[in-house]
Design goal:
mainly alpha
Length: 259
Amino acid sequence: MNDKLLVETAVLAGEIMLISGAEIFRVEDTIDHILRKAGRDTAESIVFSTGIFASLNDPSIEAITVARRVNVRSTNLNRVYLVNDVSRKLCADLMTVEEAYERLKDIRGTVQFHRRLKDMGFMGVAVFFTLLLGGNAKDCLAAAVTGAVLAGAMEVSVRIRLNDFCANAFCAFLIALTTLFLERWGLPGIRSDIIIIGAIMPLVPGVIFTTAIRDTLNGDYASGTARIVEAVVIALAVAAGVGAGMGLYQWLTGGNFIW
């Protein structure tokens, strides 16, 4: 067995899981299971929220250590499932290391939902949360427009490579501004408060916060704390963006809200 390729496979599996929002203990467990396939004396992994260290050592070989920096994070539970499936098949000898490595590269480059479908998803989330909060047909129409603006804002933030804080603040700013302008000039009588709440739901870091709590309860205090801070920063960015949008609207319209 190619030990170097096995370590690279383990680290790639961990990297995909970490990028996709998996818990630290799950990432470490997957890497450890793959490394143990080598049958060496030492097979260790250390995973943080921003990086992975994996090592394979034995008196009969030169030590192999791989470190991988992880800068991008998102939530994609489908990728986590796919990586777990590859890990199980590899450990059960249903797949070779070479096949597992190629499959993981495919998973890393897989696009589950195309951009247009994601845009429709943003609109749908805004509409259905507005409906859940008691909105009527007119409110839902306004929420659909606001969701479309959110989709466009997220696309722009990706293209100009805004960091997470600025991207979330920018999106929340446009959500608030669009909703308030719709209330004043486009669709008078809509409830802008519930529309804004419904539209910002795709930005709320609920999964990140839940993962942070699970990491903390599993003893990964550094990663748990880092993810809690990340969730708080995202929440502050959303709040700041909405506040800035409301402030700008207030300034442009002479200081009056139609609430």
